[in-house]
Amino acid sequence: METKKKIMDSAFRLFAEKGTEFSLTEVANEVGIQKPSIYAHFASKDVLLFAVIDREIESYFFEINERSRDLKSIFFMILDYYNQPGSRLYFWKRLLLFPPKVFEKTLVKKIETLSKERFEIIEEIIRINMDDGSIRCQNPEIVAFSFLALIHGLLSTSIIYQSEDLSLHFEDIWQNFWKGIN
């Protein structure tokens, strides 16, 4: 099982770096095995890539949808998720901007469905906060879009300004956003 995980971790990193242009030979070299050994775990590169992407989708959406029910927790959970080592930000940027065509009807559709569900959760939290007076009454959909735009803007900014550790400012950024909606 350890070899399978190493293969998947290598494919994850290589996909984040190169997209689908990585080779199974690169994976094998990185893991320290012979290329045919990969086939003991995965029938093809597409099967490997499907498993890697599906694992990451499950990890990402489970974190957000199941473990948190307030905006601040979701804000930090998403940013912390991408701040972990392992090229997650580049993996997701590549996956969303240049999805492998072979997975358009499966994994890309799954991402769309789970993203919609997550948006609905965020919008519901916003409505609840408006009902209890924590957030001033306004269009909850616009607040949800603003919330996600802030997060995605911070993630893109962290790519552009790699030398700056934006995580040092996340609390202040959150406070500015929160003050703007309440």
Task: Describe the overall structure.
The chain is mainly α. The protein has one domain: Tetracycline Repressor, domain 2 (Orthogonal Bundle), CATH 1.10.357. Helices cover 73% and strands 0% of the residues. It is built from 9 helices and no strands. Helix 1 crosses helix 2, helix 5 packs parallel to helix 8 and helix 7 packs across helix 8. The longest helix is centred in the middle third of the chain and has 25 residues. The protein is elongated. The N and C termini lie far apart (49 Å).
- The N- and C-terminal alpha carbons lie at a distance of 49 Å
Q: What structural class do the secondary elements suggest?
A: mainly alpha
Rounded average pLDDT: 91
Total beta strands? 0
> Please, how many helices?
9
**What proportion strand?**
under 5%
Q: What sort of overall outline do the alpha carbons produce when their principal axes are compared?
A: elongated
CATH class: Mainly Alpha
Looking at the overall shape, the CATH architecture is: Orthogonal Bundle
Helical percentage: over 70%
Number of domains: 1
CATH topology group: Tetracycline Repressor, domain 2
Largest sheet entry: none
